[in-house]
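Posted in: Structural Biology > Protein-Ligand Complexes

Title: Requesting predicted complex, ribulose-5-phosphate in pocket

I'd be grateful if someone could produce the 3D structure tokens for the following input. Sequence and ligand are given below.
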Amino acid sequence: MSGQLSPIDRAKFAAARRAVDFVEDGMCVGLGTGSTAAWMVRCLGEMVREEGLRITGVPTSSRTAALARQIGIPLSTLEDVKWLDLTIDGADEFDANLTLIKGGGGALLQEKIVAAASDQMIVITDVAKEVTTLGAFPLPVEVIPFGWQTTRALIEETLTGLDVMGHAVSLRMNGQEPFYTDEGNLILDLALRSIGNPRQLSLVLNQIPGVVENGLFIDICDVVIIGHGDGRVEVRDMGAGTVEQDQIDFAEGENIFRNALD
Ligand code: 5RP
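-- Reply #1 --
Done. Output follows.
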């Protein structure tokens, strides 16, 4: 069954499967958004059903909430739990400092709030997302709909004075319509190509009127788990300063693959 998955999906599953080893009984867990995070939600669902794992999940998007509900993970909200033990989420890019670009799926705002309210954030990713310099992936910026064209113009003007290579800003679309986030906002994607100073960029962007949040995650991620298509995983822990290699057995995921591919 795992043979029906693409190498990239096998890599994403491997990272997700290793990440759920960090989840302990009774934990409150932030559930990220995207295709890698979806594998993690499916793995957790199986642990809840088959092993009696008791957790409370806090989803970072309506999409993740729907999947978790369907799979049988008990859910709560950040308003109710206020603080989480752990968040596991994907990323669009990460660098050696575990600075991330997120928001490819449009959920960056809830993802950042939930991750910032967690004792630990683990990022699960395939190897292709590791970069020396962030910025090849367009940086998502969530803006309120009111006067968004003015916000875009202010962003474009601001970018000319910053250490970035590209300045093109585009409104994210969903077919013919603008893409709206779960909070009813818009996303502007910034094609920067190279971000010389992520910290400065993040601070400056968040000061522009109309900007709600940007997709740079700085000093938030503690551990990155990098999956490979052959089941190898690398666990890099920034706090502990350790790097561990592991191997995931795809045979353990057969039920998960069957349900996901149905
Ligand atoms: C959603 C995100 C995702 O984590 C990011 O886009 C990675 O997605 P995928 O796991 O599908 O590659 O930030 O807002």
